[in-house]
From TrEMBL:
Its cofactor is Zn(2+). It comes from the Eukaryota. The keyword NAD does not apply. GO terms for biological process: alcohol metabolic process. Residues 14-343 form the Enoyl reductase (ER) domain. It catalyses: a primary alcohol + NADP(+) = an aldehyde + NADPH + H(+). Its EC number is 1.1.1.2. InterPro entries: ADH-like_C, ADH-like_N, ADH_Zn_CS, CAD-like, ER, GroES-like_sf, NAD(P)-bd_dom_sf. Belongs to the zinc-containing alcohol dehydrogenase family. Gene3D superfamilies: Medium-chain alcohol dehydrogenases, catalytic domain, NAD(P)-binding Rossmann-like Domain. CDD domains: CAD1 (cd05283). This is alcohol dehydrogenase (NADP(+)). Homodimer.
């Protein structure tokens, strides 16, 4: 029987309890995975703390940055076999019939009346089965949402790529980032540090934009060619008047960020893509967009096509996230540290930032 670390009450969001749970109803294209690693995402915290609203199921096992080994495959699974090392991200199902699904945009599934997008946890499958996440021993997922991990990427590095990495890679990929482009990454944390590394790996000139000046050395090591501290220079955006940016990706989860300042950094027709998900609404005047002919948008995780492209790039360019490993049984402590902001920047040891990853021995049952 699969077991996992669950939250039952958003008021006690660090009080994880080990529960037994049922995997989804098995299907012919399903892949069973024994989990070895799971990254901790800010979405986990927003969900279990109630920041995004009440829980949708009685008990939530969070975690959608999953890596493990395949233990069983359905009879119609084509490209994955038992023993493969694979990853699973923030989505585990879609209708497969709507226009987005039929155009390799299943991460934007709008449903077809019989099926719909299924999140990795805090969600239900169309048949009523509860979807539970990666702070657990096992998961069962349709092949379309299972990503083979290249041998060149360590499991602990692949795990945070399943959500944080893909969330940053997708807008870079869709905006054709490459040599000759100037890309700004706002927020150098669990999300943003992926943006710096991937944009650099794709050949762009990368400008790291952070509230904190203490992240400058790290950002430059990750591949940024320029660093801006918005706290030290309240008019930071003026330096881009003559050398504007093609694209800015905003990873901040605060609604109070300076969107107007960001937009003023863009070239005519430039784009600002927000991938951080504030709990509050943002406010912006249309005039701020008009003065640059700018486009403001957002992005939702990524498709399988993008995930495979990201993993190929990471393997070829040796992209390695900055992580700290935790035993899965210590998930309560790790989540509490993320809530304090500790997971975004830890100044005492260069080896323990910017993403937390839970690990467990397959030979040992979740205790």
């Amino acid at each position: 029987m699969p077991r996992g670390y669950a939250i039952e009450d958003t008021k006690n969001w660090t009080d994880f309890k080990v529960i037994d749970f049922e995997l989804k109803t098995p299907g012919d294209v399903d892949v069973d995975i024994a989990i070895t690693h799971c990254g901790i995402c800010g979405s986990d915290l927003h969900t279990i703390s109630g920041g995004w609203g009440p829980l949708n199921v009685p008990a939530v096992i969070p975690g959608h940055e999953i890596v493990g080994k395949v233990t069983k495959v359905g009879k119609n699974v084509k490209d994955i076999k038992v023993g493969d090392r694979v990853g699973v991200g923030a989505q585990v199902g879609s209708c497969n019939n709507c226009h987005p699904c039929k155009t390799d945009n299943e991460n934007y599934c709008i449903g077809d009346g019989t099926g719909y997008m299924v999140d990795t946890y805090n969600c239900k499958w169309p048949d009523g089965s509860i979807a539970q996440g990666g702070y657990s021993s096992n998961i069962r997922v349709p092949e379309g949402f299972v990503f083979p991990i290249p041998d060149a990427i360590k499991s602990e590095h692949a795990a945070p790529m399943m959500c944080a990495g893909l969330t940053l890679y997708s807008p870079l990929y869709r905006n054709n980032v490459g040599p000759g482009m100037r890309v700004g990454i706002v927020g150098i944390g669990g999300l943003g540090h992926f943006g710096v590394m991937f944009a650099k790996a794709m050949g762009a000139e990368v400008i790291a934009i952070s509230h904190s000046a203490r992240k400058k050395e790290d950002a430059l090591k990750m591949g940024a060619t320029h660093f801006v501290s918005t706290k030290e220079d309240p008019e930071w955006f003026k330096q881009f008047s003559n050398k504007p940016l093609d694209l800015i990706i905003n990873t901040a989860s605060s609604a109070s960020v300076d969107l107007k300042g960001m937009l003023s950094c863009l070239k005519t027709g430039g784009r600002l893509v927000c991938v951080g998900m504030p709990e509050d609404e943002i406010k912006l005047r249309v005039q701020d967009l008009a003065m640059r002919g700018a486009l403001l948008g957002s992005s939702h995780i990524g498709s399988k096509v993008e995930a495979l492209s990201m993993l190929k790039l990471a393997a070829e360019k040796k992209v390695e996230p900055w992580i700290e490993l935790y035993e899965m049984k210590d998930c309560s402590e790790a989540v509490a540290r993320v809530a304090k902001g500790d997971g975004a920047y830890i100044s005492t040891d260069i080896s323990v930032r910017y993403r937390f990853v839970l690990q467990q021995d397959l030979e040992k049952e979740v205790a």
